[in-house]
Amino acid sequence: MKRVLMTSALAAVIAVAGVSAVIAAPAPTTGLAPERAGNFQLTDTTRLAHELFYFKHAPAIVLMSQTNGGKLSREGARALAKVQDTYKDKGVLFYMINSTPGQSREATAAEAKAQKFTMPVLMDELQLVGEDLGIQREGEVFVIEPKTGFKVAYHGPVTQAAKAIDAVLAGKQVANPRIDVKGGAAIAFAERGKVAEHANISYSKEVAPIIQAKCVSCHQEGGIAPFKFDSYEVVKSFAPMILESVMSDRMPPYFADPHIGTFQNDHALTADQTKTLIHWVRAGAPRGAGSDLLKETAGVAPEWPTALGKPDVIVTLPSFDVPSSGTVEYQNMRIDNPFQEDTWLKAIAVKPGARSVLHHVTSNHSPDRGTKPARIPGGSVGSYTPGAEPQVIAAGAGAPVPAGGKLSFSMHYTTTGKSATDQTQIGYYTLKQAPEFIKRSTVISDFALKIPKGEARHTEIAYLEFPADAYLYTLYPHAHYRGWSVELKQIAPDGKETMLLSLPKYDFNWQRDYDPVEPIHIKAGTKLVAKWIYDNSEHNKANPDSTINVTWGEQSWEEMMYFRVNYRWADETVSNVRNDLQAKLMDSRTIGALDNNADNKVQIDELTGTMASVRTRFADLDTNKDGGLDKKELEAGNVSRASATRDLRDADIDL
Ligand code: HEC
Which of 320, 379, 445, 620 is deepest in the core (most CB within 10 A)? Predict the structure, then answer.
C-alpha cells in the first residue's frame, strides 16, 4: 500500500481528539474518476443552469471541487484563475463544483463574492455529480474533453492542470492523467460505496411508485409522451435514458427552481426520489422481488384532466389543414359564444387536435357590435402553448365571460415537414354561482427587445408597477426558441426584493402556468420585474437562426419577451368592480418595457429593437434635459407600444 504522509493539520486534529492508535490513511483521490463524465445539469450560485453536453464545442472543460472556507479551495481558485486567464481566448471553460453537504447556495454565493471567484460555482446539492466524478476532497481538478465523448482526460491537483489542458488542446494524451490530491478537506459522500445497498433498492416498493407518481400521467397509453412506462421491462430498457434525462433535468418536465416559491402541480422529483432513482439505475436497475405496480395499474390517459373531469361545456373549433412546409399566418377562428348568460369560469382545458403543429392558441371574448361594454369585461377564454396544463382559477375567484358576443381564437401553427389536420377542443368548467373575486391578468413585456446575433446569454428586463394591492394567482413566462432562462421578482415600495419564480433553464416545449400554493400579496407601488436571458448562439439546438439580430415578433423565428401574471385586486369584488385600476396598471407599461436598469427613466441606449426609431426624437422628448425620458415625457411624446414599428395584436395580451 502506498504510504501517505499525515498532514500537520490532520495530526493536530488527532492530537486534540486524543487518538493515538493507528489511524487510517486518507484515501487516495485517484481511482474513482470515471473514464467519461455523464451528462448533468447544475445551477450555479447566480441561479443559471449549465448543462455539460451543451458545451460539445468547447475544447476542454475544467472543473474544480470546492468547499466554502476550505484553504485548498481558496488557493486553488486563485491558482486556477491564473490558468483560466492564460486560456481565455481558447474557449476553455472553467467551473467550480460544490458537493459539500450542508453548504447552501447563499453561503456559496457569499464565499464566491468574498473570494472573488472568477468562475461559476455549480451547486451539486444532491451530490450525484460528485459521486459520478469520484470527487473526494476539495481542490481536485477534472479536465474533461468533449470531443472524445466527454472523457475525463485528467483528475488531479491544480498544479498540474495547465499541463493537462495543454495536452488536451494539442490532441495528446495527458502524461499523468490521475494524480492524488493531498491535503485539504475531505468531502463526505454518504452514499459513496453503497453499491450493495443500492442494488437492494426495491423496484417494487420504491422505484415503481415514483415512476407512477411522477412519470406515468404522460408516459401511458394516450398520454403525451412517445412511450409508456407500463412494466419493469420497459423501465429497465430505458434506464440509461432515464439516468441522462433526470441528471440533465429534462425529465420530469418541471423547471422551477425548487428553492424559490412553492407551486401547485409541482411535478418535480423530490431530492430523495431523485437519489433513489439514480442510485437504482447506477446499480444496474435490478428487478428484485415483489409485484409490478406499473403492470397492475397500467391504464389509458383520460380524455379530460382527471382532477377536473368532464367539462360543463365543450367547444370544438373549426378544423384546419396545416401544410407540410412554409409559414402559416395566424388563423383567426370566431365562434358564437356558447354562453347565453353572464358566466364565470373556474377552469379551462385546451385539448389540441394535432399537438405536433399547434404552437399556440390565444383567445378573447368580444361583445356584439353596437352593444355597450359589459360591466365586467371578458378576457381570455383559453390559451395553449406546448406543455400547457389546464388553467385552474384560484378558489374564490372566476374568469368572467359576458353573455353573447363572440369567442375568438388566434391559432398559430408551425410546419414540421409533415402535413397534419388540427381540430382543437376547449373544455369549460363553470362556477354555479358568481364568485367573490375577479381574475384579472396582465403582461409584462419588452417590445423593444434586441438580441444580437450569436450572443449566447443576452439579458432583457421589463416591469410593471402595480397601482394598488393585489394577490398574484399565476405566473406564466413565455418566450420562443431562444429563451434560455427567466425570473420574476418583486421590488416592494420600500425597496425590498423578493424572487417569486426562477427557471434556471427555460424550455420552449414545456410552458405552463406556475400557480403559487398561496396567492402572493403585493403592495401598491410594487414593481414586478421580469428578467429573460436569451441564447442566440449556434449552440442553442432550438435556435432557428443564430446569424440574425432578433427583434420582437410573433413568428417563432422572432422573439418575445413576455410574462403574464393573473391576480386579483385586493379591493375588488364582483360588486365593486375596479376597471380603473386595470387602466392605471397600463400607465407603467411603456416605461417598464424600455427602462432596462429600472431607474424610472429611459436613456437613449434603452431605445432598441422596434423602438430604435424614437432615438431621433430623443432630444426633443427630453424636455427637462436630464438625459432620460420619464413617464410624463414618454406620454407627452406619445411613445408607446402602439408606436412601435410592428404592432401587436390584442390577442397576444392574454397568451
Ligand atoms: C408532463 C408530461 C411528462 C412527464 C410527467 C414525464 N415525461 Fe418523460 N417525456 C415526455 C415527453 C412529451 C417526451 C418526449 C420528448 C420531449 O418532448 O421532451 C418524454 C421523453 C422522455 C424520455 C426520452 C428521453 C428524453 O429526455 O427526451 C425519457 C427517458 C423520459 N421521458 C423519462 C421520464 C421520467 C423518468 C419521468 C418521471 C420521472 C418522466 N419522463 C415524466 C413527457 C413527460
Answer: 445
Ligand 1 pocket test: which of 39, 53, 211, 218 has the largest number of ligand atoms within 8 Å of its C-beta? 218
Q: Which residue owns the Cα nearest ligand 1 atom 26?
A: 245
Alpha-carbon distance of 25 to 192, in angstroms, equals 18
The response to whether residue 305 sits with its C-beta less than 6 Å from ligand 1 reads no
Q: pLDDT tens digits for 628-652?
A: 999 999 989 888 866 543 334 333 3
**Model pLDDT, residue 386:** 85
Question: Is residue 250 lining ligand 1, measured as CB closer than 6 Å?
Answer: yes
The finding on whether 486 has its CB within 6 A of some atom of ligand 1 is no
Q: How far is CA 111 from CA 72, 107, 120, in A?
A: 14, 6, 12
Q: Hunting for cell 422573439 — which residue is that?
A: 559
Atom of ligand 1 nearest to the CA of 509: 17
State whether the beta carbon of 224 lies less than 6 angstroms from ligand 1: yes
pLDDT class for 8, splitting at 50, 70, 90?
very low
219 lines ligand 1 (CB under 6 A): yes
Question: CB–CB of 522/470 below 8 Å?
Answer: yes
Whose alpha carbon is nearest atom 20 of ligand 1? 225
- Binned at pLDDT 50, 70 and 90, residue 27 comes out as low
Q: How far is the CA of 576 from the centre of ligand 1 (A)?
A: 46
Q: Residue written as cell 481538478?
A: 141
Task: Return d(Cα 502, Cα 255) in angstroms, integer.
Answer: 8
226 lines ligand 1 (CB under 6 A): yes
The answer to whether residues 297 and 212 touch, using CB atoms and an 8 Å cutoff, is: yes
Q: According to the model, what pLDDT value does residue 17 have?
A: 39
pLDDT of residue 30: 75
The answer to whether the CB of 80 falls within 8 A of the CB of 156 is no
Does ligand 1 have an atom closer than 6 angstroms to the CB of 223? no
Tell the burial category of 537 from Cβ atoms under 10 Å away from its Cβ (0-12, 13-18, 19+). Answer: middle
**Phi, psi angles (nearest 5°) of residue 66:** -135, 145
| Predicted confidence (pLDDT) per residue in 464-497, tens digit | 999 999 999 999 999 989 999 999 999 999 999 9
Q: What percent of the chain has pLDDT over 70?
A: 94
CA angle 400, 406, 411 (to 5 degrees): 95
Task: Verify whether ligand 1 is closer than 6 Å to residue 601 (CB atom).
Answer: no
388: pLDDT confidence band, cut at 50, 70 and 90? Answer: confident
CA nearest neighbour of 158 among 143, 171, 170, 146: 143
Q: Tell me, in angstroms, the distance from the centre of ligand 1 to residue 566's CA.
A: 28
Query: Is it true that the peptide bond before 252 is cis, omega within 30 degrees of 0?
Result: yes
| Cβ(215) – ligand 1 distance below 6 Å | yes
Q: Whose CA is nearest to atom 11 of ligand 1?
A: 225
Q: Which amino acid is present at 30?
A: T
Residue nearest to atom 42 of ligand 1 (CA): 225
CB-based contacts of 157: which residues, under 8 Å, 6+ apart? 139, 140, 141, 179, 181, 182
Question: Is residue 19's pLDDT more than 60?
Answer: no
